[in-house]
């Protein structure tokens, strides 16, 4: 049953990515929604879960510190890589897209780990976690494709990252049944990735969605993305 849930996350993620590729001409609106979804995942899913798990063995201050460290570390990496570009170049830094997509991929792996670990605790907890993961995996697929395309990546590269991101939660489920990961350690990892996601949403996706497009529509889709993830997380509890 757990493997079937892992396959469901694959389908949800992949369909989200296909949606983003199919409607690429409306990418600025999808980017707006994607920005809200990324921030929503961090605020309503990753941060609460990291606090819940991390504080079982560590102080709350350590968890919040790791969120800040994750944000700062991603910012430093992003700006360090950007230094390799010439100021007069119009070519977008594809490695930024790959870096962001890699972050989403690892998050998807953690999703699968979370599902597997939850079912180890009890079937009831497992179903709640699985529902929460499935509700935002569609957005994960959109986000993965968007960060590749908006940083100058090709459609083929977007497909490759999308496939990897869709497979990641399945792999995570398998790993969860092969190894034991302390819940508190998983909470600390989630805290770091919360910082990553806050930076990606606020500093990359939101500015890009507003670039040369009417701000009222992209603002509306960003709020819609935040609201959708809040509702999905609320209903999954």
Keywords:
8 helices; 237 residues; mainly alpha; 84% helix
The residue ranges in which pLDDT falls below 50 over 5 or more consecutive positions are 83-90
Mean pLDDT metric: 79
Shape: globular
Q: How does the helix and strand content classify structurally?
A: mainly alpha
Q: Give the helix tally.
A: 8
Taking the sheet with the most strands, its summary is: none
Distance between the termini: 20 Å
Which series of helices and strands comes N to C?
Answer: HHHHHHHH
Number of strands: 0
Percent strand equals: under 5%
Radius of gyration: 17 Å
Number of domains: 1
Tell me roughly what share of residues is in helical segments. Answer: over 70%
Protein topology:
Elements: H1 2-22, H2 27-54, H3 60-82, H4 94-121, H5 123-149, H6 155-176, H7 183-210, H8 215-236
Helix pairs in contact: 1-5, 1-6, 2-3, 2-5, 2-7, 2-8, 3-7, 4-5, 4-6, 4-7, 5-6, 5-8
Provide a descriptive summary of the structure in words.
The chain is mainly α. The chain has one domain (2-82, 92-236). The protein has helices spanning 2-22, 27-54, 60-82, 94-121, 123-149, 155-176, 183-210, 215-236. It is globular and about 45 Å long. The two termini are 20 Å apart.
């Amino acid at each position: 049953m757990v493997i079937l849930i892992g396959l469901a996350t694959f389908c949800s993620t992949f369909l989200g990515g296909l949606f983003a590729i199919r409607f690429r001409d409306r990418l600025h609106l999808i980017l707006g929604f994607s920005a809200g979804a990324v921030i929503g995942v961090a605020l309503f899913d990753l941060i609460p879960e990291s606090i819940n798990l991390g504080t079982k063995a560590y102080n709350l201050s350590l968890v919040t510190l790791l969120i800040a460290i994750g944000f700062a570390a991603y910012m430093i990496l992003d700006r360090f890589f950007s230094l390799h570009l010439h100021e007069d170049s119009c070519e977008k830094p594809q490695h930024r897209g790959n870096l962001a997509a890699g972050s989403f991929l690892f998050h998807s792996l953690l999703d699968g780990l979370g599902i597997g670990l939850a079912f180890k605790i009890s079937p009831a907890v497992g179903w709640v976690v699985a529902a929460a993961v499935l509700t935002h995996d569609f957005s994960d697929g959109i986000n993965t494709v968007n960060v590749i395309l908006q940083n100058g990546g090709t459609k083929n590269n977007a497909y490759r990252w999308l496939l990897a991101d869709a497979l990641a939660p399945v792999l995570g489920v398998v790993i969860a049944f092969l190894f034991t990961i302390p819940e508190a350690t998983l909470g600390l990892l989630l805290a770091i990735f919360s910082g990553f996601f806050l930076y990606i949403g606020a500093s990359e996706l939101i500015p890009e969605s507003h670039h040369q497009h009417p701000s009222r529509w992209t603002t509306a889709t960003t709020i819609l993305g935040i609201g959708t993830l809040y509702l999905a997380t609320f209903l999954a509890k």
